[in-house]
Amino acid sequence: MHIPDGYLGPETYGSFWAATLALWYLAGRKLKKTLKATDAPLLALGAAASFVVMMFNVPIVGGTTGHATGATLLAVVLGPWAAFICMSIALAVQALLFGDGGITTYGANCFNMAFAGVFAGWAAYRLLAGSCASASKKRLLFAAGSGAYFGINVAAFLTAIELGIQPILERGADGKPLYNPFPLKITIPAIMAGHLTLFGFAEAAFTVLSIAYIIKSHPELICGTIAGNRAGEKQQ
Amino acid sequence: MKKKGKHKKLWIALLVLAVLTPLGLWVPNFFGAGGAWGEWGWREIEKMLGYAPSGLKKTNGLWKAPVAGYGSGYLGYLASALLGILVIAVVVFAVSRIFLSGRNRKDNGQKDGRKK
């Protein structure tokens, strides 16, 4: 899902850079009000966890590989805006230090995995979990797992669309595609098959196991965002 | 105030995962799986299609990453996991220091020490 340099044309990657910059600005405004510098260790943990889980490549026998992203886990524990920033930082380190994902395509990768993946997963989680304080542990885990499955598939689908529209948008004088050459009818099944059948479940399993562990070790971290925890305490 | 080692169990879990990362390389090798779909270099595309789209070819190698492909071998992969965690932690702390205020915000209405 890490789109490398060269796969998206300037119109596409420029648009996604602009969208991501605007979303960072929004995130910054929200987080300045809710987070403080002493939350940094937890944010670092989240970003690092996302980075590490992405290193666990899950194979389709004889085919390609994919991996979990931790998007929904981060959203549940840190809140979606903080998760978005943390994953953006993980993606930046992957691109700059390890060449995983491009520089021109970094905006699109952030938008797909760190923004859309996080918010889709978080929305599904919230919908299914209902009131976090009164939900049973089973229900929370089910909601988080379902959110994770949904979130990563939303991210994968966006990736497939962005890649697949390149042959429509960008063609040279000879009619040949300039960037990603594979059309939608190839990109969508190629990317979604793996995510719907395998990587989505890897993401769900990782999220459920992690949240079960956190409920045991740090129950105060579940049920909303870092800031939400504080607000929640106030209400009680 | 923040207690030292407040999230110790989570850091331990993270380090356990980091130590296991070579599995993320070994398992795909074992099952004969290649890389991720659509993350090929332009040469691989050239092999697949007989040509590489000109824009893709031009932009593909734009950035020379210092530890491209997470190093080589299982040990390189493990070292990359640890290096990545370190760099990410440093960046997150720096970003937090720059953008977030050091004190508890008014709207929290809580003293920090309340939570265990």
Features:
heterodimer; A: 236 residues; mainly alpha; Arp2/3 complex 21 kDa subunit ARPC3; two-stranded antiparallel ribbon; 9 helices; 2 strands; globular; disordered C terminus; B: 116 residues; 2 domains; 5 helices; 0% strand; flat
Topology summary:
The complex is a heterodimer of chains A (236) and B (116).
Chain A: H1 10-34, H2 40-53, E1 58-59, E2 65-66, H3 71-78, H4 80-98, H5 106-129, H6 137-164, H7 166-169, H8 184-217, H9 226-235
Antiparallel strand pairs in A: 1-2
Chain B: H1 8-20, H2 23-30, H3 42-49, H4 54-60, H5 73-99
Task: Provide an overview of this structure.
The complex is a heterodimer of chains A (236) and B (116). Helices cover 70% and strands 2% of the residues of chain A. Chain A has helices at residues 10-34, 40-53, 71-78, 80-98, 106-129, 137-164, 166-169, 184-217, 226-235, and strands at 58-59, 65-66. Chain A has a two-stranded antiparallel ribbon with strand order 1-2. Chain A is built from nine helices and two strands. In chain A, a hairpin with a 5-residue loop joins strand 1 and strand 2. Chain A has a single domain (10-229), classed as Arp2/3 complex 21 kDa subunit ARPC3 (Orthogonal Bundle), CATH 1.10.1760. Chain A is globular, with a radius of gyration of 18 Å. Chain A is mainly α and 236 residues long. Chain B is mainly alpha-helical and 116 residues long. Chain B folds into two domains: 1-31 and 71-101; 35-62, no CATH class. The longest helix of chain B is centred in the C-terminal third of the chain and has 27 residues, at 73-99. The N and C termini of chain B lie close together (10 Å). The model of chain B is unreliable at 105-116 (pLDDT under 50). At the A-B interface, helix 1, helix 2, strand 1, strand 2 and helix 4 of A face helix 1, helix 2, helix 3, helix 4 and helix 5 of B.
What is this entry, summarized?
Chain A contains nine helices and two strands; from the N terminus they run ααββααααααα.
Quaternary class: heterodimer
Helix content class of chain A: over 70%
What order do the SSEs of chain A take from the amino end to the carboxyl end, as H and E? HHEEHHHHHHH
Give me the number of helical elements of chain A: 9
Overall, the morphology of chain A is globular
State the end-to-end CA separation of chain B. 10 Å
List segments of chain A where confidence is low: pLDDT < 50 over at least 5 consecutive residues.
Answer: 230-236
Q: How many domains make up the coordinates of chain A?
A: 1
Whole-number count of domains of chain B: 2
Largest interface: A-B, 86 and 81 residues
Q: Could you tell me the strand content of chain B as a percent range?
A: under 5%
DSSP E strands of chain B, number = 0
User: Averaged pLDDT of chain B, please?
Assistant: 86
* Strand line-up of the largest beta sheet of chain A: 1-2
Estimate the helix proportion of chain B, in percent: 40-55%
